[in-house]
């Protein structure tokens, strides 16, 4: 049957439209030289950065400049530093293998029971966001349960069973770093091969043709093994984030062992980061709708990053405090606590407002009023048109990423808890500022391609990104 000319044109327009929006939905299809240079830089230097930080604590009391000075003045050679670094040990390999296996078991084989008795908690089988190919994945949300079981066992061991010392993580910190790297590289390489040869959903794969870019940013969108083992959900949350609080507890235990007390700064870091981690697991279902899960592909950036970068660099404050047991004045400690809690409040409320708004499709109240929003539309890979809304009320009317602002305030609080003697604990705020500013730009580039002129209307209504009136 012949199509009428007008119909044909409409069809063609729709295809062009589809191509355009699909092109920028998720990570890029084409690699510009700047992205490639950044990726090569990160692939080469990110593992060295992690090593440098951890080594400078172990060998230079957390001074970032002393190792460089030693090398520049010829006082030491690279080989001296390397030869003083603990190697991979059998003990660390066993600890790490047991740890990862235990987290796989908790993730795969124990369906969530927390949602059955915790009011307000969303767990069990939940749906993720629609992918560019129009797929809606199901996830078993049981991270809170995994976190609780792991920590109950940790405390049971520390107080009753004494199978191992609570300082076990600190005591094996560098050998465990090698294990984390092995897993990080193995999983990223496996994800790349899987993307080529047996992808979970071929329509959601992206190939740029550039090996390094594909390795780093991932090919598959949601690689899975079987029905339920989702790489992104597992590696993003566990083993790294469940470990975060255990690592901090191990550092606190080390302080107790070395100095006979745990300082108020270490307690602050444990409490503030503990709130952040618990918040992550309490809101794991919401997390399915964040950029990591609904836009990023799974490659080295997430695979290695979750195994190595996150557990080693997000815990630098606790590690620093083992070497420098800072006892803060009451005023300083209260200031840090207030900043940390205020940052957390802004972070959580902003995320909550968007979540509520999206879940109810705008039929809710934000700060006691019906929310205002901008209607927008986008097209998926098969040409289906979807409608969405961008809220301009509440914190989302103050700035386009006020959740990041809250996150940055909390991050600064962790650093300030460590006093002002060294640079190393401040790495986190520097890194988070770069990460979240880059994320703002990345997300806005994507949203702009996804929503087109509707995005322009939104940025006109909410002109600032992080700080109203400034940026
Ligand atoms: P957001 O939760 O801000 O999600 C951005 C997405 O939300 C956009 O792509 C768009 O998606 C949608 N959106 C944007 N503006 C609006 C609006 N006005 N109304 C409704 N929807 C909107 O970003 P992230 O996923 O990056 O971050 C989630 C949280 O995780 C943040 O609080 C961040 O601070 C934290 N985080 C922490 C990290 C860490 O390492 N500690 C790393 C990364 C994030 P759509 O296409 O659906 O419209």
TrEMBL record:
Catalytic class of the enzyme: oxidoreductase
Any Pfam family matching the protein: ERG4_ERG24
One biological process term in Gene Ontology: brassinosteroid biosynthetic process
Pathway: Steroid biosynthesis; cholesterol biosynthesis
Biased composition (Basic and acidic residues): 1-10
Keywords: Cholesterol biosynthesis, Cholesterol metabolism, Endoplasmic reticulum, Lipid biosynthesis, Lipid metabolism, Membrane, NADP, Oxidoreductase, Steroid biosynthesis, Steroid metabolism, Sterol biosynthesis, Sterol metabolism, Transmembrane, Transmembrane helix
Membrane-spanning ranges: 33-54, 88-110, 144-164, 176-197, 298-316, 328-347, 411-436
This enzyme's EC code(s): 1.3.1.21
Alphabetized InterPro entries for the sequence: ERG24_DHCR-like, Sterol_reductase_CS
GO molecular function: 7-dehydrocholesterol reductase activity
A GO CC annotation given for this chain: endoplasmic reticulum membrane
Region annotated Disordered, chain positions: 1-21
Membrane disposition: Multi-pass membrane protein
Location relative to the cell: Endoplasmic reticulum membrane
Reactions catalysed: cholesterol + NADP(+) = 7-dehydrocholesterol + NADPH + H(+); 7-dehydrodesmosterol + NADPH + H(+) = desmosterol + NADP(+)
Family: Belongs to the ERG4/ERG24 family.
Cited function: Catalyzes the last step of the cholesterol synthesis pathway, which transforms cholesta-5,7-dien-3beta-ol (7-dehydrocholesterol,7-DHC) into cholesterol by reducing the C7-C8 double bond of its sterol core. Can also metabolize cholesta-5,7,24-trien-3beta-ol (7-dehydrodemosterol, 7-DHD) to desmosterol, which is then metabolized by the Delta(24)-sterol reductase (DHCR24) to cholesterol.
Protein name (Swiss-Prot/TrEMBL): 7-dehydrocholesterol reductase
Organism in which the protein naturally occurs: Toxostoma redivivum
């Amino acid at each position: 049957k012949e199509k009428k000319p007008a119909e044909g044109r409409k069809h063609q327009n729709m295809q062009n439209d589809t191509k355009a929006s699909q092109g920028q939905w998720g990570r890029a299809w084409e690699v510009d030289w700047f992205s490639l240079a950044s990726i090569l830089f990160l692939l080469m230097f990110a593992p060295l950065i992690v090593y440098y930080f951890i080594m400078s604590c172990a060998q230079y009391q957390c001074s970032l400049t002393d190792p460089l000075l030693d090398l520049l003045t010829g006082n030491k050679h690279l080989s001296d530093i390397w030869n003083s670094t603990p190697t991979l040990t059998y003990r660390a390999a066993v600890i790490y293998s047991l740890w990862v296996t235990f987290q796989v078991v908790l993730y795969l084989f124990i369906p969530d029971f927390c949602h059955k008795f915790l009011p307000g908690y969303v767990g069990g089988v939940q749906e993720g966001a629609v992918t560019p190919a129009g797929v809606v994945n199901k996830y078993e949300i049981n991270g809170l349960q995994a976190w609780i079981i792991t920590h109950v066992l940790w405390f049971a061991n520390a107080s009753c069973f004494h199978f191992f010392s609570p300082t076990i993580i600190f005591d094996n910190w560098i050998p465990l770093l090698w294990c984390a790297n092995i897993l990080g590289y193995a999983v990223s390489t496996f994800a790349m091969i899987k993307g080529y040869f047996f992808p979970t959903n071929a329509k959601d794969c992206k190939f740029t043709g550039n090996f390094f870019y594909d390795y780093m940013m991932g090919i598959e969108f949601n690689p899975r093994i079987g029905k339920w083992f989702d790489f992104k959900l597992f590696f993003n949350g566990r083993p790294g984030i469940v470990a975060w609080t255990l690592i901090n507890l191990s550092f606190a235990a080390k302080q107790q062992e070395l100095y006979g007390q745990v300082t108020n700064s270490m307690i602050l870091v444990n409490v503030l980061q503990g709130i952040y981690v618990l918040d992550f697991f309490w809101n794991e279902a919401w997390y399915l709708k964040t950029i990591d899960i609904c836009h990023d592909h799974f490659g080295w950036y997430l695979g290695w990053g979750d195994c190595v970068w996150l557990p080693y660099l997000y815990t630098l404050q606790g590690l620093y405090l083992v070497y420098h047991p800072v006892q803060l004045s009451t005023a300083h400690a209260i200031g840090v606590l207030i900043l940390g809690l205020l940052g957390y409040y802004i972070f959580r409320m902003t995320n909550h407002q968007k979540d509520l708004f999206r879940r109810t499709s705008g039929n809710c109240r934000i700060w006691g009023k019906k929310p205002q929003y901008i209607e927008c539309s986008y097209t998926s890979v098969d040409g289906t048109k979807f409608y969405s809304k961008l809220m301009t009320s509440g914190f989302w009317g103050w700035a386009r990423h006020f959740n990041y602002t809250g996150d940055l305030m909390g991050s600064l609080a962790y650093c300030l808890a460590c006093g002002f003697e060294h640079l190393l604990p401040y790495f986190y705020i520097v890194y988070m500022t770069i990460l979240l500013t880059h994320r703002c730009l990345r997300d806005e580039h994507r949203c702009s391609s996804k929503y087109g002129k509707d995005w322009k209307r939104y940025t006109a209504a909410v002109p600032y990104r992080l700080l109203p009136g400034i940026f």
